[in-house]
Design goal:
With 565 residues, the protein is mainly alpha-helical. 47% of the residues lie in helices and 6% in strands. It has a 3-stranded antiparallel sheet with strand order 1-2-3, covered by helices on one side.
């Protein structure tokens, strides 16, 4: 052959191939008995043959190395420099693929623009577990390319997936610049950090970290609801940022006391840049500034979430039941007196419902179409929770046929075309009551008929889900708050839509609606009341909604709804 090489044999055709067997113990982890690659030549002295030989040999060594780590149950360490290097390699591959598409004429600028919003929303709103789900295959493939085996349950793996998302955002920015004619070259691959080449492997049986155990617990099919899950992930992120990646055995009551004290000093409102910093860095940068700090309720919620996760891990076997819960029963100061909101007053209602959306048929940009008109009216006249209104279906509006006339049902039995299954906050929160007469006067039934004629199933078909909790109302609420501010209809301390839920019971009390009917119509949990509260059918309580009227809310100033031209 002219050059001495190993593991090369000549086929009957005279062409050469690289063929090398894996040791028997490694074969289950490789999925084959041997590694076979064609050299595409009859002699290793032919152009490109030796390069292909060296590539085949390197691939074999990487594959065998990964298999040995799998056999030993070992993982490679993944520190910040290695994560940064892998993310840069990912960005380089991403841009190289873009160059190839441009050569073939298959680059898609519209897709690049759409991807920008989606990727940035994912980075800002999605949980670490969601991002890991998006990028774990990319992360594993990238690591394997460099002979690394990573622990998918480690916090560092979550960090790598997040950095890959950031790298894709940077790469997409370059793609969009290329779309506009900029000549941006693809960067060259970089040498691995020196420490990476000699990185010591660690055993898989190493002590698991509390945050990793807790994140895994949250992903169990018997886990928690979306709201609790999001709150738990936030608490875990703050704990890890403030105290580091600690094993359960390393978390003492003194550790949690220090964490609680840090939370008390943490600014309540942090910029996007500050959210990327460690907790102690944010606190240090805020020293000397008069800024609001985390409230007692928020700090209590974070500690409560961590305490509940500890208890869940004890129950599921993740933590030794002999260890006392270090997050339980901490003294974080005296709770402030609860704040009481009466909702919007008459002058505020007058200002809100005199806005052009209600009086002139205006539909500003991003207002979500007819939701701009009907959602605030429904929130005011029913006292329902914002998400309950946002997820309503056309089928939830029915002509009762039993003397009730047209009714509205708040339920969790339907399936929304965007959100999926409807959800309620508390057990037994489903209820039915008459459509408020003022809404019928404004054309609500014409609106429902218009939707049916358009074959829509959702009452507000333009709403889209937003955020990790997959909620519909935030896609409307963000615009609504901006609209009130822009029109000087937002007072200090206003919560935009939520204040309607406080306005309704104020009006209901003034109109003589019984307490039991108020609780039913608003969907409050009755389990803590008298035994009588849980007996019989409570649906008749909904009739009392017809008694409610609002000072400062005269439908005469609101233009009746009209369908789009």
């Amino acid at each position: 052959m002219g050059v001495a090489v190993e593991y090369v044999r000549r086929l009957k055709s005279g062409r050469l191939e690289y063929r090398r067997a894996f040791p028997a113990p490694l074969r289950p982890f490789v999925g084959s008995r041997e590694w076979v690659r064609s050299l595409g030549a009859r002699s290793v002295t032919e152009p490109g043959a030796l390069v292909r030989y060296e590539a085949a040999n390197a691939e074999y060594e990487r594959t065998a190395t990964l298999a040995r780590k799998s056999l030993a149950g070992a993982y490679d360490d993944l520190d910040a420099p290695r994560i940064a290097w892998l993310a840069q390699e990912f960005e380089t591959d991403f841009l190289a693929q873009d160059e190839a598409r441009r050569v073939m004429g298959t680059a898609d600028p519209e897709m690049h623009e759409a991807a920008d919003d989606g990727l940035r929303d994912t980075l800002a709103e999605r949980s670490p577990a969601f991002i890991r789900g998006m990028f774990h295959l990319d992360a594993e493939s990238l690591a394997a390319k460099h002979g690394l085996r990573l622990d998918k349950e480690s916090v560092s793996f979550l960090a790598l997936c997040r950095e890959l998302l950031k790298a894709m955002i940077r790469g997409n920015e370059i793609r969009m610049a290329r779309d506009k004619g900029a000549l941006v070259p693809t960067p060259s691959s970089q040498e691995a950090p020196q420490a990476l080449a000699a990185a010591a492997s660690r055993k898989a049986q190493a002590q698991p970290r509390f945050v990793v155990l807790a994140l895994t617990e949250l992903e169990r099919p018997t886990g928690v609801g979306a709201s609790t899950k999001q709150a738990s992930q936030t608490a875990l992120s703050l704990f890890r940022s403030a105290m580091g990646d600690l094993a359960p055995q390393a978390i003492s009551r003194a550790t949690v006391t220090e964490f609680a004290d840090l939370l008390a000093r943490l600014p309540a409102n942090r910029s996007v840049r500050e959210k990327r910093l460690q907790v102690r860095e944010v606190i240090k940068s805020s020293e000397g500034r008069d800024v609001p700090r985390l409230s007692w309720k928020t700090r209590s919620t974070h500690l409560g979430s961590l305490s509940a996760l500890w208890n869940k891990l004890v129950s599921s076997g993740g933590i030794d039941p002999g260890r006392l819960n270090p997050f339980a029963r901490h003294n974080i100061g005296k709770a402030p007196p609860p704040t009481v909101s009466a909702g919007f007053n008459a002058a505020e209602l007058h200002k809100i419902f005199s806005l052009p959306v209600f009086t002139a048929g205006a539909r500003p940009s991003a207002c979500r179409g007819e939701a701009a008109y009907w959602v605030p009216l429904l929130l005011l006249t029913t006292g329902a929770r914002p998400e309950e209104i946002a997820q309503l279906m056309v089928a939830d509006v029915q002509n009762d046929g039993e003397g009730w006339g047209w009714t509205l049902t708040i339920t969790d039995t339907g399936t929304h075309p965007r959100k999926g299954k409807q959800r309620l906050k508390t057990p037994g929160a489903g209820r039915t009551f008459p459509v408020p007469p003022s809404l019928i006067d404004l054309g609500f039934l014409r609106y429902v008929a218009w939707l049916k004629a358009s074959k829509e199933t959702a009452l507000f078909p333009t709403l889209r889900t937003k955020g990790a909790r997959n909620l519909l109302f935030p896609s409307f609420g963000e615009w609504w708050g901006k609209y009130l501010r822009a029109n000087d209809a937002w007072r200090k301390g206003c919560r935009g839509a939520r204040d309607f839920r406080h306005t309704w019971p104020t009006a209901a009390r003034e109109c003589g609606v019984s307490r039991e009917a108020q609780e039913y119509i608003m969907g409050h949990y009755m389990g803590g009341g008298t035994s009588n509260a849980t007996y019989g059918d409570r649906r008749s309580l909904g009739r009392e909604l017809r008694k409610v009227s609002f000072k400062g809310f005269e439908t005469a100033r609101i233009a009746p709804w009209r369908p789009l031209d």
